[in-house]
């Protein structure tokens, strides 16, 4: 049995969670997921300003902090912290280790970055059609910022077999971080579809951190113990493909069949066809049982052969947006907020500003649940203590969006009464980065594994 | 049969993929799964999110988990980074679905 922990569900997740995973109980592998789609674009912007940037700096700080513990406890780390500059991340980790006089073997998995090859692909008739709309990438080529392939677990497992203590990847499928140590430790083959699918589902279960151990859990949420000290998830994996999801003893949170089900259903499509680079997993074959307190056992998982394609995510710029908010108070909070929205829209019209979209929401009335929630009832509406007016605009024209940001604050003095600016200041204009999902034949790209210090 | 809110029988989690939202709907008690299958059809979910979900609604069954998975196409105002919504990733569509009234 091996223990694979997750200490980071996204970049911006708890800084303390990976430290607790290392120090509060036994684990063999620590996986850290830093890369959401939007993260890649943020990293791209950072690297444009500084060629040595472009990776998750939090990761380097973490390693500097816990490296002695990792060595003492013989814990190996797998992280997609490399972002768009895995070599830069490796160098920073090696420097941090050298400062502490600690020797560590660091591997990189690269080759996922196909930004510079897009022209060549399109010329050769590889259209990289949008998986949702069917449009060829050429439609937005001028706006493309970058494109990455999602690799699977085998190159990560290869890095482990070369002796890496820390594996830094660029883009790999999230679940691959968890599957890789199973392939490495148990000698699973590329055709062990059922076992690979089990590893993928284990990865899916823990890749969002505490979202499987009682975080964001709707069942009996008020009785979930000590969320302040919530334990992050650990997979206890067996060579036959069965595994348990659990957490360190003494931590907060709760691991139940219900908490696990919520996470299994998170961000999936057709449950019989969960397509990954390594296999197609079937979530309808999962059998769960509560094997003990805070311990759920997974059995029965089946899968099918992988497809001949990798998924590609290309990012492209798509105009600008800004959101402004004001809070209106009783009496008539909702009516005042609605009136202010009408005044604002009229002014934007008088200024001749055109937007691709204007959206108004009333927080405290029906913003998130919108139409399913309906309008506040006539009994409730006049008594709402406060309602936040939130207006967003989107346009190709940055100047129009800038101008919009100047029209929010004046409403405090020249619009309906009983209003505050929430202390937020003028709204920020954001460039919009949108995403283009596509497929590419696996034969077109190859993962590269390298290790430092190298053996030779 | 009486009218009941889905929140009494089920829990849920939602997330995004581009302009699509998925909502996993899970029976709190295994015996209630059949009620979810009968009552919470793709058509009813489409109706519930009328004006929010502009595309099709697909439904998948996971009897092993006592759960249904719904895919709401064109439901995020263009997708996470493009949307101007307070909930641009559809995280609260889960609880919005639990408002639905069903016969149970």
Beginning-to-end CA distance, first to last residue of chain A: 32 Å
Uncertain residue segments of chain A: none
The largest chain-to-chain contact, stated as pair and per-chain residue counts, equals: A-B, 49 and 46 residues
Please give the largest β-sheet of chain A: 10 strands, mixed
* Element-level helix/strand string of chain B: EEEHHEEHE
Strand-residue proportion of chain B = 25-35%
Tell me about this structure:
The complex is a heterodimer of chains A (456) and B (104). The model of chain A has no long low-confidence stretch (mean pLDDT 96). Chain A has 13 helices and 19 strands. Chain A is globular, with a radius of gyration of 25 Å. Chain A is of the alpha+beta class and 456 residues long. Chain A has two domains: 2-112 and 150-307, no CATH class; 314-436, 2-Layer Sandwich (Alpha-Beta Plaits), CATH 3.30.70. Chain A has helices at 17-23, 37-49, 57-73, 86-99, 118-123, 154-161, 176-186, 193-206, 257-264, 333-350, 370-373, 398-405, 411-414, and strands at residues 2-6, 29-32, 76-79, 106-110, 144-149, 166-169, 234-237, 243-246, 274-275, 280-282, 287-292, 295-299, 302-304, 309-329, 357-363, 386-395, 419-420, 430-441, 448-452. Chain B is elongated, with a radius of gyration of 13 Å. Chain B has a single domain (3-103), classed as 2-Layer Sandwich (Alpha-Beta Plaits). By secondary structure, chain B is α+β, with helices and mostly antiparallel strands. Chain B has helices at residues 33-39, 42-48, 93-97; strands at 3-5, 10-17, 20-27, 57-62, 67-72, 101-103. In chain B, the strands form two sheets. Chain B has a four-stranded antiparallel sheet with strand order 2-3-5-4. Chain B is built from three helices and six strands.
């Amino acid at each position: 049995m091996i223990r694979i922990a997750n200490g980071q569900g996204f970049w911006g997740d708890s800084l303390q969670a990976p430290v607790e995973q290392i120090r509060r109980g036994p684990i063999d592998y620590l996986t850290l997921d830093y890369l959401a789609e939007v993260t890649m674009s943020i990293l791209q912007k950072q690297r444009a300003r500084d060629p040595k940037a472009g990776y998750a700096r939090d990761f380097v700080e973490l390693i500097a902090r816990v490296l002695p513990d990792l060595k003492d406890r013989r814990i190996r780390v797998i992280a997609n912290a490399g972002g768009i500059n895995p070599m830069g991340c490796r160098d920073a980790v090696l420097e941090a280790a050298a400062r502490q006089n600690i020797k560590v073997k660091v591997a990189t998995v690269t080759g996922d970055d196909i930004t510079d090859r897009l022209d060549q692909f399109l010329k050769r008739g590889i259209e990289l059609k949008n998986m949702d709309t069917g449009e060829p990438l050429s439609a937005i080529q001028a706006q493309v910022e970058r494109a990455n392939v999602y690799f699977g677990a085998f190159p990560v497992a290869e890095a482990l077999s070369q002796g890496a203590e820390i594996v830094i990847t660029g883009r790999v499928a999230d679940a691959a971080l968890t599957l890789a140590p199973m392939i490495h430790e148990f000698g699973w083959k590329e055709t062990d579809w059922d076992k690979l699918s089990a590893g993928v589902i284990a990865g899916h279960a823990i890749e969002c951190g505490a979202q499987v151990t009682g975080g964001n859990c709707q069942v009996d949420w008020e009785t979930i113990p000590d969320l302040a000290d919530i334990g992050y998830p650990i997979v206890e994996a067996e060579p036959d493909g069965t595994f348990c999801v659990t957490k360190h003893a003494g931590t907060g949170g709760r691991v139940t069949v219900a908490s696990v089900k919520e996470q299994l259903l998170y961000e999936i499509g057709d449950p019989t066809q969960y397509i990954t680079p390594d296999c197609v997993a079937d979530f309808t074959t999962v059998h769960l049982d509560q094997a003990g307190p805070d311990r759920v056992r997974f059995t029965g998982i089946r899968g099918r052969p992988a497809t001949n394609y990798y998924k590609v995510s290309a990012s492209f710029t798509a105009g600008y947006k800004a959101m402004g908010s004001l809070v209106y108070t009783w009496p008539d909070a909702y009516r005042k907020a609605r009136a202010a929205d009408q005044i604002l829209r009229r002014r934007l019209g008088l200024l001749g500003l055109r937007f691709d979209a204007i959206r108004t929401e009333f927080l405290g009335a029906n913003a998130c649940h919108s139409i399913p929630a309906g309008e506040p009832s006539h009994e409730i509406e006049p008594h709402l203590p406060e309602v936040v007016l939130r207006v967003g605009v989107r346009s190709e024209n940055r100047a129009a969006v800038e101008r919009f940001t100047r029209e929010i604050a004046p409403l405090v003095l020249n619009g309906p009464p009983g209003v505050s600016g929430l202390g937020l200041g003028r709204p920020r204009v954001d460039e919009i980065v949108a995403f283009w999902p596509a497929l590419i034949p696996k034969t077109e790209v190859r993962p590269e594994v390298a290790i430092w210090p190298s053996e030779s | 049969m009486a009218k009941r809110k889905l929140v009494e029988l089920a829990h849920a989690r939602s997330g995004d993929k581009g302009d699509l939202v998925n909502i996993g709907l899970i029976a709190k008690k295994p015996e209630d799964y059949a009620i979810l299958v009968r009552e919470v059809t793709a058509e009813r979910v489409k109706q519930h999110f009328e004006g929010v979900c502009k595309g099709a609604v697909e439904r998948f069954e996971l009897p092993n988990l006592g759960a249904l998975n719904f895919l709401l196409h064109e439901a995020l105002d263009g997708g996470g980074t493009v949307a101007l919504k307070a909930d641009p990733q559809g995280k609260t569509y889960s609880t919005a679905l639990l408002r639905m009234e069903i016969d149970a």
